[in-house]
Amino acid sequence: MSSFGFEHPWVLGLILVAIFCSIKCKALESALIFPHLNILKKIQRKKAFFIEFLKYSSLFLLIVSLAGPIKYDNSVTIKNIGYDIALVVDVSGSMKERGFDKKDPSKSKFEVVKELMKSFISKRLSDNIALVVFGSFAYTASALTYDKDTLKKILEFLQIGIAGQKSAILDAIAQGVSLLKKGEAKSKILILLTDGIDTASKIPLDIVLKMVNKHKIKVYTIGIGNKEFINIPLLEKIAKKSGGEFFYAQDALS
What we know:
CATH class of the largest domain: Alpha Beta
Strand content: 15-25%
Strand order of the largest sheet: 5-4-3-6-7-8
CATH architecture of the largest domain: 3-Layer(aba) Sandwich
Number of strands: 8
Structural class: alpha/beta
Order of helices and strands: EHHHHEEHEEHHEHEHE
Shape: elongated
Distance between the termini: 36 Å
Largest sheet: 6 strands, mixed
């Protein structure tokens, strides 16, 4: 269920000022708003009414827009019921490879991943979700949010190589932890999805594992594509040490 409100509701008081002025300031109205009053005398009454309607409608809409109308989606504001989840997604150069989806070989791995992520996000109605992307470096695409529509829009705009061509897997996990530790849910989960090996991280594995365990975060690692190019032992270790699980998908049907 949706509801509406205003960011600056006090601005709506200007509507009362406008009404008061329209009643009490007749003498000034023609001088300030219509300096060429003689022109109005030649306009038919219907046209004059239309001009008045247009004038006050425009003023009303201007005041409402200045008040900052906001739409609240109450269906996504239920807090502390679900999980805090950080989606950590590989956007390095290798994600542009095609053929991962056997039904549509023209799609890149990243295109398939985006579709799966959007489907996942849509189903997590009571969860607070953050999004981290990584290549040569990791950065936050979205902090924890219940706004699933905005999150999916952000995901749609992401492009391969936006964070560089290499893979900073451990740095990305650390970034995800920094977001999850700010959440209020009792259960925290980090989902890492990658098709490669770590070639750019600056934070060592032992430090990352300490961060994960300190904040009681379960890490679920997912390796996709050719096994030869994935550091499966690393992904398995991270998942096991955090109480999570490792998954492997050779293709989109796995």
